[in-house]
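In line with agreed milestones, work has continued on tokenised descriptions of protein folds. One protein thus recorded appears below exactly as we store it:

>
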Amino acid sequence: MINFDKDELYPLLFEPLYKEVMWGGTQLASKLNRPIPNDGPPIGEAWEICDRDGFSSSVANGPLAGTTLHELVAGCGKEFVGHSFSGRYFPLLVKLIDAGKRLSLQVHPNEAACAKLGNGAEPKTEMWYIIAAERGAKIIAGLSGKSTRRQFVDNINSSDIEKLLQVFDSYPGDAYFINAGRVHAIGAGNLLLEIQQNSDTTYRISDWGRTDADGKPRQLHIEQAMESIDFMDRTVPRITGASDTTDRNRKYPLINRCPFFRVDDLKLVEDWYDSTDSTGSFHLLTAINHPVRIGRDDRITEVPVGSTCLVPASFGSYTIFAGRGATTTVVRTTL
């Protein structure tokens, strides 16, 4: 284990891990200027911040470049993550999702379902923030108010299953809370930020009749999904984005009652002063529409559009240098 002096820490950027998937899109390149080859397999996910056995993100900036997130968590513990930290891994996973085609209809289990299912199942609650959406893009999230369990089961293999789901037009600035047990799918044309529990457990309910490059349908997980779906949940998961204009900085709570993370939408017209002491945890700061600079004194990090900066829990006071003029949007995530 590497030991770190907390005074050595600063706002951190990480090298993303790009995932090739059949439904991947082109907006990581076109909207965020990511170096995605035009002639390669489609890229659908960028794992921005991740600490798992198979992969731990590496620091991309400053003196700690090349250090893994897991090394920082192991070496700094609560000073890095926060006073509530008691595990071995960083508790959240941050992704960008670039959907060129519609994702499968799926569900994630909660702790109770994981206990029944076993086989390494991990609970997963997540939220989405829409960065960009092409015309006609949709979000599917939750069961409709009139659907029943029997109707759902009877229509799993039918296109009529969409009539039993909540379907929303996708707009930049909207957010969605996808608690474990909520059926969901990301529609084609969406580019979104995903904040989630550190889990990679997904149960596929329907893949809309698609086949892979070999002409074979992808595996479904109907039995596990039925154990995981909360059929009593009819909550509307959409959190409508702020539509008012302002001549001062504003903070709009997006997720504030979730035990796994809290998320705020910061609308900034000037510099924003904050501190990790206010929450007792790290801060994740995602630049949505303009690049920003984050830090204090000689420890300031340039954050490109679409990137997420991790401010360690022990860092204390910092500033988001947002400049003047057009409103700058930053999504702030804490424990």
